[in-house]
Specification:
With about 240 residues, the protein is an alpha/beta fold. It has 3 domains: about 60 residues, no CATH class; about 60 residues, no CATH class; about 100 residues, Metalloproteases ("zincins"), catalytic domain (Zincin-like, 2-Layer Sandwich). It is about 35% helix and about 25% strand. The protein has a 4-stranded mixed beta sheet with strand order 1-2-4-3, with no helix packed on it. The protein has a 4-stranded mixed beta sheet with strand order 5-6-8-7, with helices on one face. The protein has a 3-stranded mixed beta sheet with strand order 9-11-10, covered by helices on one side. A hairpin with a 2-residue loop joins strand 5 and strand 6. The longest helix is centred in the middle third of the chain and has 33 residues. The two termini are about 30 Å apart.
């Protein structure tokens, strides 16, 4: 069964109730929020799910059109660079390789439309595979340094390859950071790391949590959140 809800901040919400669903899940799709839930889920639980995940939905809200790809397209990441070039040895193929010195190249055969959805997905897959490896070497040490700066002791830091969440702190104190952070400037990387570290003290998004996070960020929480919300991601999220 399908229903439409309206939220003042998130806009139209598409709700699907199904006997095959075992829990409530949500995502952005085609510019709208889609929520799936088990058949018979009370509306109050749907509303509670929306409120509990409002910040997450806002963080992932699509911003502007996708960035078009072309031969020669380049974007810089943390201590590395991604390039799209041309190759003529493998017809109809995309080939990727790292030079081992911080440059990752995706080479496309002439005539491939780099902005076809399935081609963009392949490019995204190649980029994330490379960045996950780089993040293990570059991002994890940064995260531990920030933790030591605030005398916080997470159980562990690990790298994820998902794009739905840039960071996640478990109830056991394990923090997962998306390798997508490698594409952000240093201030925004620190914002995400501090956000998850703050959850070690405040495992919620209460006013006390935001007060703590703002203090950790020298009063820049609102400013940095605005920047990350508007960041022009070079791959599709």
């Amino acid at each position: 069964m399908r229903y439409n809800l309206t939220d003042k901040e998130l806009g139209r919400i598409n709700l699907t109730l199904s006997r095959t669903n075992t829990r409530i899940i949500g995502k952005w799709k085609s510019g709208e929020v889609h929520i799936s839930a088990p058949m018979g889920t009370p509306l109050r639980l749907i509303n509670q799910f929306i409120e509990n995940n409002r910040e997450w939905f806002n963080q992932l809200r699509p911003h502007g059109p996708m960035i078009p790809y072309h031969i020669g397209f380049t974007f810089k990441c943390l201590k590395c660079e991604i390039r799209i070039t041309e190759q003529e040895t493998h017809p109809g193929c995309l080939i990727s390789e790292s030079d081992g010195r911080g440059t990752f190249t995706i080479a496309a055969y002439p005539g491939i439309d780099l902005n076809q959805p399935h081609i963009r997905k392949i490019i995204r897959k190649h980029v994330l595979y490379y960045l996950k490896h780089q993040a293990e070497m570059e991002l994890i040490p940064i995260a531990w340094n920030v933790a030591r700066e605030y005398r916080l002791t997470p159980k562990n830091f690990k790298i994820g390859s998902g794009l739905q969440r840039l960071g996640l702190c478990s109830e056991h104190g394990e923090i997962t950071l998306s390798c997508a952070l490698m594409m952000l400037p240093p201030d925004l990387i620190r914002y995400v790391i501090c956000h998850e570290l703050a959850h070690l003290t405040q495992f919620n998004h209460s006013s006390a949590f935001h007060e703590l996070l703002n203090k950790m960020l020298d009063g820049r929480e609102v400013e940095l959140k605005r920047q990350i919300d508007a960041f022009p991601w070079p791959i599709d999220r």
